[in-house]
């Protein structure tokens, strides 16, 4: 279960460590293991999340952002 606060913590963590992902923000498994370890204290609800859970969530957030960004570009917003 992901709360909005959990998602914000993830995005903030990625913002603060984006250099580790390169230009495409494609992070390796070690990055996600470290992310999970660093964000244990900030999990607001549900079970402690694994590195794989953070990686999957990031992939979904990026995909959603890319869709919204394309729609906004085509609609002129």
| Radius of gyration, whole Å | 14 Å
Helix coverage percent of residues?
55-70%
Question: H/E order of the elements?
Answer: HHH
Strand runs, count: 0
Walk me through what this model shows.
The chain has 77 residues and is mainly alpha-helical. Helix content is 62%, strand content 0%. The protein has helices at 4-16, 29-38, 51-75. Helix 2 (29-38) packs across helix 3. The longest helix has 25 residues, at 51-75.
List keywords for this structure.
77 residues, mainly alpha, 62% helix, globular
Summary, kept brief:
The chain has helices spanning 4-16, 29-38, 51-75.
Topology record:
Blueprint lengths: L3 H13 L12 H10 L12 H25 L2
Helix pairs in contact: 2-3
